[in-house]
Amino acid sequence: MIVFGFSLFGIAAMFAIKYREVRAGRVLVPNLREAGDEHALAFKGFLASVRAEVATWPGRTILALRSFIRSLALVIAASARQIERQAHRWADLVSHKHHFERRETSNDFLKRVGDFKSDTSAPPDIDS
After folding, report:
1. Contact 112, 126 (CB under 8 A)
2. From CA 124, how far away is CA 128, in angstroms rounded?
3. CA distance 83 to 75
4. How many other C-beta atoms can be found within 10 angstroms of the C-beta atom of residue 13?
5. Cβ contact 20:28 at 8 Å
6. 50-107 tens-digit pLDDT
7. Which residues does 28 contact at the CB level (< 8 Å), separation at least 6?
8. Dihedral sign, Cα of residue 27, residue 30, residue 35, residue 38
9. Spatial distance between the Cα atoms of 97 and 44, rounded to a whole number of angstroms
10. Is the entire prediction scored with pTM above 0.85?
């Protein structure tokens, strides 16, 4: 708000000075006016060069972003490859049966179902 107030005051003062110069028919402090005009033209040239430079930023930004995404994809792929190589070790580490060995089941129902698959002549007696 303070900067806005100063800016508004400055603009109003410039219009007041211009109005007074037009009514009086002469320029107040002409040397200062010429120096200000030279600085304004130099600043305008600077802004034009900045505008030309900023116009190249989207292309450079896209190129840099493309390079970053490619590098990130390569890092992720290398990490995935390393994880794939170590997956069997991790599975053994996490598993509660580190070295699985097949044994005969102790469940009676599963034994009867297994016997039924090998002997298809008679159905199993499930109710007994």
Report:
1. yes
2. 10
3. 12
4. 10
5. yes
6. 999 999 899 899 999 999 999 999 999 999 989 888 887 777 777 766 665 667 777 8
7. 17, 20, 21
8. positive
9. 77
10. no
Amino acid at 61: T
What DSSP line would sit under the chain, residue for residue? -HHHHHHHHHHHHHHHHHHHHHHHTS-SSHHHHHHHHHHHHHHHHHHHHHHHHHHTHHHHHHHHHHHHHHHHHHHHHHHHHHHHHTHHHHHHHH-SSSS--------HHHHHHHHHHH--SS------
As a whole number of Å, the CA-based R_g of the chain is: 43
d(CA 98, CA 76): 29
- Sign of torsion, CA 98 104 106 107? positive
